[in-house]
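Design job #97: recover the sequence.
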């Protein structure tokens, strides 16, 4: 059985306890993981704090930090096969997706490598003749980065890249579900040559490890991806250390298809939007809003495509949909789909867990046009389940699209340019895709409105979010200060 270690202060350690990790394709234990306790977390945060103040890191100039990030990107590419295999084994995410995603993860680090020495301060045109005033951009301090099970290497990259470029140090908590790829990634961080304590990687459960990390007095910023309920705990925890937070919390994103859309493209994008990663994607286009005039035609096409999906073992390159990551997730999806059908949703296809080992759920389409309040329309399922609603007018499409507390992403399929612009303006979402879906890039900011969180990942803004400013006042006059009670 494979054994994994935590990485604290430049040292690989067993952790004070261990827990079992299941292979989602078989449901069987395949590896043992180190379970970090509150005291392990305390050591990791203290190491990050020491590293933050150490000359090895604090005095390293931004160009050199960028070089370390570039080396990290090269090493990720070198080890991408192994990282992809581990992520597939421990989380059930199919190898086709993990291999492509990890290659792109390297590009995220490369982008932030280039950005490190372009994070600039400012000189202020101050309103006093004998003063020189400028803003220094300084790293915010120790960052607690917390990720869920889906796309762990990617979700870690969008936090570590900008945090390290800005000069912060990090304690990264891998999810207790499928932590293997990030624990392996620690070896690559070590090899890249980051000074001890700059990046620490632990895993463990929310209640002990996560709680201890987010309440720790030496943490200055918490970057979190996960569900809204956990985010509320984290924000409450941050009241202890008054750390700033950035939260990426998933969604219930609308995928809107107008009757003038290119039907084949829209159908393919919808299949990818909801069934890729078995629906365990924060941007899953999980609510199809379809124009009434093309509803039957479009649903027939989608049903045909959904039923042709190759379901199989995640490490098989031919597999298109693999298992969910956990039994918990499978149970959650079963419950919500069951409830929606009781409420009157009509099953177009799927709606069952598959009769095979592991945590498999069939690609599912639920027509909820008659029951827009169905549980599957209002809850994030994080699984391969599409809920369908229909509309007659653009206004109705907008009302349905914005009728959710979430606001991460939205997709619009139309050939009408002016309508596309109207929709872009009025959709309450942090990302709008027009005639495409699920595209991301290190250059483009990503994040949500409302219950989907706050703060942005990707792009320059993300790096600035890991900085604070120091305002420097320098008096340039040689005249003595005469009056102690009048400061100018
Ligand atoms: O996530 P959690 P879960 C949604 C999705 C899913 C639901 C629950 O709908 O069904 O959330 O998933 C750590 N203090 N998303 O339960 O709990 C935990 O150990 C500090 C959407 O797996 O949010 C893990 O590392 N940390 C989302 C991380 O939080 C705590 C992706 C995420 O776990 C903690 C995942 C605590 N008190 C789920 N409790 C997206 N944005 O895409 C837990 N954690």
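Job complete. Output follows.
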């Amino acid at each position: 059985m494979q054994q994994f270690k935590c990485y604290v202060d430049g040292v690989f350690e067993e952790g004070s306890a261990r827990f079992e990790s299941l292979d989602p394709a078989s449901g069987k234990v395949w590896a043992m993981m180190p379970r970090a306790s509150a005291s392990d977390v305390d050591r990791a945060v203290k190491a990050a704090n020491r590293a933050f103040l150490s000359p090895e890191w604090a005095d390293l100039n931004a160009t050199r930090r960028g070089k370390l990030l570039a080396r990290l990107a090269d090493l990720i590419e070198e080890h991408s096969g192994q990282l992809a295999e581990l992520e597939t084994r421990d989380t059930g995410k199919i190898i086709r997706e993990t291999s492509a995603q990890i290659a792109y993860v390297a590009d995220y680090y490369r982008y932030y490598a280039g950005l490190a020495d372009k994070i600039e301060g400012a000189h202020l045109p101050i309103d006093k003749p004998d003063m020189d005033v400028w803003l220094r951009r300084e790293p915010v301090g120790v960052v607690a980065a917390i990720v869920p099970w889906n796309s762990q290497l990617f979700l870690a990259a969008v936090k570590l890249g900008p945090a390290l470029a800005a000069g912060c140090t990090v304690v990264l908590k891998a999810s207790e579900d499928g932590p293997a790829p990030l624990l392996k990634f620690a070896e690559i961080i070590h090899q890249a040559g980051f000074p001890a304590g700059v990046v620490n990687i632990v895993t463990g459960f929310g209640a002990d490890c996560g709680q201890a990390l987010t309440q720790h007095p030496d943490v200055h910023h918490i970057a979190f991806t996960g569900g809204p309920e956990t985010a509320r705990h984290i924000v409450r925890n941050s009241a202890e250390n008054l750390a700033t937070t950035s939260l990426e919390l998933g969604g219930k994103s609308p995928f809107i298809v107008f009757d003038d859309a290119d039907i084949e493209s829209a159908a393919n994008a919808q299949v990818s939007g909801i069934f890729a990663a078995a629906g365990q994607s924060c941007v899953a286009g999980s609510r199809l809003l379809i124009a009434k005039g093309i509803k039957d035609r479009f649903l027939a096409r989608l049903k045909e495509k959904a039923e042709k999906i190759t379901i199989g073992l995640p490490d098989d390159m031919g597999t298109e949909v693999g298992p969910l990551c956990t039994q918990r997730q499978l149970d959650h999806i079963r419950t919500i789909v069951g409830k929606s059908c009781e409420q009157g949703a009509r099953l177009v296809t799927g709606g069952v867990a598959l009769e095979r080992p592991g945590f498999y759920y069939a690609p599912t389409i639920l027509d909820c046009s008659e029951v827009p309040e169905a549980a599957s329309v209002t809850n994030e399922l994080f699984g391969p389940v599409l809920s369908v609603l229909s509309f007659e007018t653009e206004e109705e499409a907008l009302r349905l699209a914005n009728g959710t507390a979430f606001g991460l992403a939205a997709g619009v399929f139309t050939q009408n340019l002016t309508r596309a612009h109207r929709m872009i303006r009025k959709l309450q979402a942090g990302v709008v895709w027009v005639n495409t879906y699920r595209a991301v890039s290190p250059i483009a900011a990503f994040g949500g409105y409302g219950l989907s969180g706050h703060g942005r990942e990707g792009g320059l803004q993300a790096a600035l979010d890991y900085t604070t400013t120091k305002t420097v006042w320098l008096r340039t006059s040689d005249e003595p200060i005469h009056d102690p009670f009048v400061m100018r």
